[in-house]
Amino acid sequence: MGVNWRYDPAAGIVFTQTNQESRPYTERLVLPSPTPHDLRSARGPTAIAPAYLDTAGISPQVTALARRITADAPTDFDKAVALNRFFTDPANGFHYDLRTAPATGSAEAISARPKTMQVYIAAIRAVASSRPPQPPWARP
User: Fold this and answer.
1) Among the residues of 70-116, which ranges form H helices?
2) Which pLDDT does position 87 carry in this prediction?
């Protein structure tokens, strides 16, 4: 590509800070296919941004529901699978909807029909926030 071109692996892009046309190039991608065993033994990122662990505004009922759903799940992967199975099972009344429920901060979000993905996301945050705290050197 030339000396002024760089690759940003986090963004997956090739770029330059000078205005120039690029020569043709090929980008190769390797997509891993981890097995459930691989995912169960994975330790995940060492740092999770605090914003993803903030449970302010999540009702205690949602937190209790998430903990009940994941109580028997031994790993983070199993917890994610348990939450996914619960929230995608039509018998539980949840469905994906881009419209959000009113921000009441109450248990109404759990019992409201149709149930929205807000509760699903809140449950994931509640479970993630129950992980052991990260050492300061591992925080973003």
Assistant:
1) 76-88, 108-111
2) 85
